[in-house]
User: What shape does this take?
Amino acid sequence: MFVVAHGFTGAVDRPHVRRVAQAFARYGAVVTFSFRGHGASGGRSTVGDREVLDLAAAVRWARELGHARVGTVGFSMGGSVVLRHAALYEEATDAVVSVSAPARWYYRGTAPMRRLHWLVTRPEGRVVSRYGFRTRIHHRDWNPVPLSPVEAVPRIAPTPLLIVHGDADGYFPVDHPRMLAAAAADQGELWLEPGMGHAEHAASGELLGRIGEWVVGRAG
Assistant: This one.
């Protein structure tokens, strides 16, 4: 069973999320959902903080459906969420794949991330996000600041962990996946994909197939 955690401004009905789900469906059952504040889902996005509760609910539902083995696959914001979920919820998942995730919070080192911070932190940016991207963002700052992805990674072992990142990612350069891999030490695996950009949009069918095979091989 695959539980897919989409990136910021994604949603269950977006074509790129559906394409990911269809690719994984060749390897097992798939649960997709929209994080809070995204698409038709209620509430407001906290951009990776309380979204861990949404993922936990989706994984519980997958278990309730009778699936004994569950792998989580997250992209970008969802990639950071699957890391924290695996760190905070003991035995919640049997394999974890984080694609195009940041290693640390508040990163503004690229132009796309500076634009994203404008969307999240400015009232006019949140209006653009609401009507342009169907994503409603909470106006409050994080309090407390959640466990960062790089802090979460060492807590995931012994659950199998795969970190996937493109070397042409315009949001998070390759120091991010390398930091995550270093934190995982010999308990994680890093795939640095040549020519790949960011998240679901950049994940080729071939890469999704390899991820599907990895999850089946590790989660059973």
Summary: The beta strands are 2-5, 30-32, 71-75, 95-99, 161-166, 188-193. The radius of gyration is 16 Å. The first strand starts at residue 2 and ends at 5. The chain has one domain: 2-106+143-219.
